[in-house]
């Protein structure tokens, strides 16, 4: 299946906040129960267990293209986070996303949200211990994806992980099924299947790492239809 290049509705930036939140909540539930979060958390768990994670006091995490802040909230509830002094900074280029993320995370003093470009982050080198990016890679063209990887590597001290969909025909037809019988938001119905068609294959993801020039980074495949680009070390 050739990679699609047409824009998703989420990329147009003209969706009202109520519909935007409704759509992203639907995506969140699929991500939570159908493999997205487990793949991300598996790699984050290994990095958080790294002895270097807490050698400078509290652990600093960066969520890139954070959407409405669901991943940081889930991380703080995650059983493997018990006892860890963690702060999570969230960035997104979409001001509406940041507004929703700030609203949803307002009860936690461990999470902050700001508008920033994932391909040109306003942070110094090694500003964070661990950085991660979930379900945003497919929104980017190859040049943007390469620059995202370079930026993640630049700002993270211990490691980083990018998780996203894997472009496969069965994944596409699964998304079409969800769009037909599960999703209610017209945004999700449109963007869900298109997200699969816009995503990268494992071979293409490896080529992105090669172009970024990141040594020690690898691509892992996870069930169902998930990719993780990881650098830890």
Automatic annotation (TrEMBL):
GO terms for biological process: methylation. Keywords: Methyltransferase, Transferase. The keyword Transferase applies. Residues 62-157 form the Methyltransferase domain. InterPro entries: Methyltransf_25, SAM-dependent_MTases_sf. Gene3D superfamilies: Vaccinia Virus protein VP39. SUPFAM superfamilies: S-adenosyl-L-methionine-dependent methyltransferases. Pfam families: Methyltransf_25. GO terms for molecular function: methyltransferase activity. This is Methyltransferase domain-containing protein. It comes from Paenibacillus thailandensis.
